[in-house]
Inverse folding.
């Protein structure tokens, strides 16, 4: 087994031993989909939503939920805790550099994200007869860019947070506006235009809209892809500059 | 070839000179103590030796390697225990050992290490549930899991109660007996005195003295005192004729002798030749503590151990 695989599996084990982490990131989104879908009105086409059902709108929102939880909340609190406890420093005197632990965390998080996203989309299809993304390539591009922008922000939080607790706090404070513009409380389709104009320039306002567009068969708006790419590049450059291993 | 050769080492942080013209060598198979108060530059020195920092001047060679340039090779052959480094709370002892041994091509036998370190029955315990002493022993086990030629242990008994501390010291002697060279960084005088074959005294980033603990003590030529009750009448001149003895006084049935050097040996030898038994013999000897004060003009900082001292419970 390679050292990275061993580290990744160990990180996955630790993640499973922390129920609050995996409950909110992995179990809660599918659960929320089931709860929303159990409301009869949300399963009826709505003329105000261009003939879509509320449950249709929530599939991409919950995909964004999974990504935001893992990238903004889970990852920074792990990394900042590892730095605070000298775990990254301890690795730097072994043949395995501390950057390998960061890679293991990213690999573990992405594997978890893919699992949970598959579960959300699959549940939608099987239980509520929601569609699969029609423009599949467009969806994949939007998904990858959304993940990249959120993980870059997560790394930036991990870089600036002085402790694990601080990272968890900053992550939560960031998570709320990101999920607000993603439409978790009020879907973008039901939000005032002005709010959506602002949301277009946030990672998941752009991300959820881009996935939504791909779902209904059109290529995502280049503006949304550009916004996500800009977050991904800007935040990862800042994170690389500010990140400290000890 | 020495295991460590440090030559005119210098490291400066802004205005603070942390290490100033420091030179010493560590030979294969010895326990080498680096002793000094907090802020003396001990940790900076070992961080340079471990390849975590580069010196601003001078050179360090470890196992014939340049610790910074050859750090990949160094990491495979040197085990280090860092000050205040922890593990994830929910990582079990066995998992930590498996993970860290996977980092090395030819790791030591983890099970045997855990046995030797008294952690065998803690294999399935999470790091967060270990006592302070157990955490410290696990951290030593992880420093040794790569089967290193050199182990560098930084403040390894900080936060331990006296019993756990003595257990740890026995461990370090076992490690040396396996042929591992040990560098022990400490501000605890008793630790250096008990364990180290040789000690480098460091203060203000400079080397104050380097010698065996006994050698350092004898350097200060401190006055020694002993007292006893002779079993038979004793002529004071028997003692005052000895070169080690400076003064003999009497108090009731007690004889008090002051002097220097190997006073005890000289006095007991002369008593034995005259068939006199020294009853209730007591000595007061200078310690490494006194040596430190004499050599640096100040006391070592005896800061209380950080956190709650805990007694390891597995013994």
């Amino acid at each position: 087994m390679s050292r990275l695989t061993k580290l990744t599996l160990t990180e996955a084990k630790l993640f499973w031993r922390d129920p609050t982490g995996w409950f909110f990131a992995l179990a809660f989104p599918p659960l929320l989909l089931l709860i929303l879908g159990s409301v009869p009105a949300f399963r009826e086409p709505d003329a105000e939503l261009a003939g879509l059902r509320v449950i249709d709108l929530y599939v991409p929102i919950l995909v964004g939920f999974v990504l935001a939880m893992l990238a903004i909340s889970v990852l920074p609190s792990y990394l900042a805790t590892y730095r605070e406890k000298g775990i990254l420093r301890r690795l730097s005197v072994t043949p395995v550099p501390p950057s390998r632990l960061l890679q293991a965390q990213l690999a573990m998080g992405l594997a978890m994200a893919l699992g949970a996203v598959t579960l959300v989309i699959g549940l939608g299809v099987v239980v509520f007869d929601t569609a699969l993304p029609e423009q599949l390539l467009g969806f994949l591009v939007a998904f990858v860019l959304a993940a990249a922008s959120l993980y870059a922000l997560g790394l930036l939080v991990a870089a600036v947070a002085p402790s694990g607790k601080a990272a968890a706090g900053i992550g939560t404070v960031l998570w709320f506006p990101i999920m607000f513009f993603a439409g978790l409380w009020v879907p973008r389709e039901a939000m005032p235009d002005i709010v959506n104009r602002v949301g277009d320039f946030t990672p998941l306002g752009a991300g959820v809209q881009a996935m939504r567009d791909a779902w209904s068969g059109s290529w995502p708006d280049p503006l949304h892809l550009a916004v996500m790419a800009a977050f991904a590049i800007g935040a990862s450059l800042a994170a690389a500059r500010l990140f400290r291993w000890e | 070839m020495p295991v460590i050769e440090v030559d005119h080492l210098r490291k400066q942080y802004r205005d603070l000179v942390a290490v100033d013209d420091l030179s010493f060598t560590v030979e294969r198979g010895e326990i080498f103590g680096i002793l000094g108060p907090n802020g003396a530059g001990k940790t900076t020195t070992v961080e340079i030796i471990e390849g975590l920092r580069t010196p601003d001047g001078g050179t360090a060679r470890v196992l014939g390697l340049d610790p910074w340039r050859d750090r990949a090779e160094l990491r495979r052959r040197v085990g280090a225990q860092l000050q205040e480094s922890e593990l994830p709370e929910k990582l079990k002892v066995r998992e930590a050992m498996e993970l860290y041994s996977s980092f090395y091509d030819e790791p030591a036998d983890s099970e045997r290490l855990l046995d030797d370190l008294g952690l065998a029955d803690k294999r399935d315990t999470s790091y967060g549930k270990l006592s302070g002493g157990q955490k410290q022993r696990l951290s030593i086990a992880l420093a040794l899991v790569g089967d290193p030629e050199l182990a560098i242990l930084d403040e390894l008994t900080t936060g331990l109660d006296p019993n756990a501390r003595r257990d740890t010291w026995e461990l370090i002697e076992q490690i040396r007996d396996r042929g591992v060279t040990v560098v022990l960084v400490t501000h605890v005088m008793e630790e250096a005195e008990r364990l180290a074959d040789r000690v480098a005294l460091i203060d203000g980033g400079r080397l104050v003295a380097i010698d065996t603990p006994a050698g350092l003590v004898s350097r200060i030529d401190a006055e020694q005192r002993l007292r006893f009750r002779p079993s038979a009448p004793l002529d004071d001149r028997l003692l005052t004729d000895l070169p080690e003895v400076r003064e003999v006084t009497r108090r009731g049935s007690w004889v008090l002798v002051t002097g220097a050097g190997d006073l005890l040996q000289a006095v007991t030898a002369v008593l034995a030749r005259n068939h006199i038994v020294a009853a209730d013999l007591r000595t007061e000897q200078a310690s490494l503590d006194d040596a430190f004060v004499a050599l640096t003009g100040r006391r070592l900082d005896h800061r209380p151990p950080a956190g709650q001292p805990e007694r390891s419970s597995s013994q």
Remarks:
- The mean pLDDT of chain A is 93.
- Chain A has one domain: 3-242.
- Residues 3-242 of chain A form one domain.
- The first helix of chain A runs from residue 3 to 16.
